[in-house]
From TrEMBL:
It comes from Hordeum vulgare subsp. vulgare (Domesticated barley). It is a multi-pass membrane protein. The gene is LOC123412737. Residues 37-177 form the Fatty acid hydroxylase domain. It catalyses: a long-chain fatty aldehyde + 2 NADPH + O2 + H(+) = a long-chain alkane + formate + 2 NADP(+) + H2O. It is found in: Endoplasmic reticulum membrane. Keywords: Endoplasmic reticulum, Lyase, Membrane, NADP, Transmembrane, Transmembrane helix. This is aldehyde oxygenase (deformylating). Belongs to the sterol desaturase family. Residues 357-527 form the Very-long-chain aldehyde decarbonylase CER1-like C-terminal domain.
Length: 528
């Protein structure tokens, strides 16, 4: 459509009827009046006639059906169509401009202003967000026939037999094609009566300033692909930085993305806080308050499961979610950290022939669960930690006959012959040098380690692929490919699908690792 409009615009400018650009006035009120008159008299009825024709017989199946393929409309849907449809839309937009120029009343402001208003009204109609309140239509009843609403257009996309107008429902009224529920439904939507409550919420946070632009409502092209630093985003860093400051001052949790799975709505909400802020002591209470408010909001709405992402479940911050469950014992929403499935993913990546592993981050929540699970399999675990007290505490949790398989080490060189490293603490290139050639680094550390050793292999962060019947997944979760989510996200999904009634907070229950893993596979989730 852009190419078509460029060519038509070039043809118009080169024609003798069109005045030289240097001769155009900036403002000409008569031109606006002529354009408005022609829009009402030509564009509106002409577009409605063409639009209705596109809904008949072969014109719909061969052309217009592609436009209606989007089950949920969005602003980009307004420009999605075949060249024939683009031509109809272009003519509807250009007719008022051509008439104004032929009348000698064209101006620069008319060209830019008319196209901007035209595109805005198209995008507004497809946005699924009510811009004009139902109270305005109630106060001015005639207005409902002069400007359409997103609900009005949404009914057209669902029913396909009504509401054909461009912007003015007046012409549908004259043609007898106004959907009878247009105004009643708009009022319900505007009042929030038909809002759908999500069954599952993944509560994330912003990683850093640049990646904050990796969201569908900022750059859809970027968010539809795994996150990577792109040069086009760097000039926008000052704007993103200002937004970060603004969020700290006055923002609250907001919805970033959603998808549907087996009839249930799953949403990702984001705490308006950035990773580095979680390590600033004065901000700790404020972050916990944001998380608490999000949990209470989900509980009030009727959300079934809320899964805490990344640093939102940090042990030092809130005990892996224990703080909120203890403070609000009557929560109906189930709060989960999802780390049981994270541990399961990591453990199932380890080949069955392995008899010895080296574990860093050994006394963390995940490290503890991994060590206790592996020792039960009679796998020797070299646990890197300087704290004998924490090591002994974990060792005593293991059954007596398996405690011998847990060994404390304090130096990296203790693992110089071990080819399976489980990395839960960031490794510098110097520390990686101690690994022998052929080592595989299994990772559960954020951010991932630098892949320094060319004679070794590196695993990705623990993740799971969502079931094949997932719908409406239009964006990627950070560095994951589309359809793949972090294991803690997948853990919350499994919790929701299984209908489990317990909270999954605090320490990982080692006995449930296999239970959660089998449940994930049973529901169609799979390792990526």
């Amino acid at each position: 459509m852009v190419i078509m409009q460029t060519l038509l615009g070039a043809m118009a400018i080169s024609s003798p009827v069109f005045p030289a650009v240097s001769d155009l006035r900036v403002w000409e009120p008569r031109g606006w009046a002529v354009a408005l008159l022609l829009h009402v008299a030509v564009s509106e009825p002409g577009f409605r006639w063409a639009h209705r024709a596109l809904h008949r017989g072969p014109l719909f199946s061969r052309y217009h059906s592609k436009h209606h393929a989007s089950p949920v409309t969005q602003p980009l849907t307004s420009a999605y169509g075949t060249p024939l449809e683009s031509l109809v839309l272009t003519l509807a937009m250009a007719a008022p401009l051509a008439g104004a120029f032929l009348a000698g009343a064209g101006s620069v402001s008319l060209v830019y202003g008319h196209i901007l208003v035209f595109d805005y009204l198209r995008c507004m109609g497809y946005s699924n967000v009510e811009v004009i309140s139902h109270r305005t239509f109630r106060a001015f009843p005639l207005l409902r026939y002069l400007i359409y609403t997103p609900t009005y257009l949404s009914l057209h996309h669902q029913e396909k037999d009504s509401n054909f107008c461009l912007f003015m429902p007046l012409f549908d009224l004259l043609g007898g094609t106004v959907h009878p529920r247009s105004w009643e439904l708009q009022k319900e939507v505007d009042q929030g009566k038909n809002d759908r409550v999500p069954d599952f919420v993944f509560l994330a946070h912003v990683v850093d300033v640049v990646s904050s632009m990796h969201v569908p409502f900022a750059f859809r092209a970027c968010s539809s692909q795994p996150w990577a630093t792109r040069l086009v985003l760097l000039p926008l860093w000052p704007i993103a930085f200002c937004l970060m400051v603004l969020q700290v001052l006055c923002s609250k949790t907001f919805t970033v993305s959603f998808y549907c799975l087996r009839g249930a709505l799953h949403q990702t909400w984001t705490i308006p806080r950035y990773s580095f802020q979680y390590f600033i002591p004065p901000m700790k209470d404020g972050i916990n308050r944001q998380i608490e408010l999000a949990i209470l909001r989900a509980d009030k709405m009727g959300v079934k499961v809320l899964s805490l992402a990344a640093l939102n479940k940090n042990e030092a911050l809130n005990g892996g979610g224990t703080l909120f469950v203890d403070k609000h014992p009557d929560l109906r929403v189930r709060v989960v950290h999802g780390n049981t499935l994270t541990a399961a993913v990591i453990l199932n990546e380890i080949p069955g022939s392995v008899k010895e592993v080296f574990l860093t981050g050994a006394t963390s929540k995940l490290g503890r669960a991994i060590a206790l699970y592996l020792c039960r399999k009679r796998i020797r675990v070299l646990m890197l930690t300087l704290s004998s007290e924490r090591f002994l505490k974990i060792q005593r949790e293991a059954p007596a006959e398996f405690q011998q398989y847990l060994v404390q080490v304090t130096k990296y060189h203790a693992a110089k012959t071990v080819k399976t490293w489980l990395v839960g603490k960031w490794l510098s290139p110097r520390e990686q040098r101690w690994a022998p050639a052929g080592t595989h680094f299994h990772q559960f550390v954020v951010p991932p380690v630098i892949e320094f050793r060319r004679d070794c292999t590196y695993g990705k962060l623990a993740a799971m692929r969502l079931p094949k019947d997932v719908q409406g997944l239009g964006s990627c979760e950070y560095t994951m490919e589309r359809g793949v989510v972090h294991a803690c996200h997948a853990g919350g999904v499994v919790h929701c699908l299984e209908g489990w009634e317990h909270h999954e907070v605090g320490a990982i229950d080692v006995d449930r690792i296999d239970v959660v893993w089998k449940a994930a596979l049973r529901h169609g989730l799979s390792p990526p």
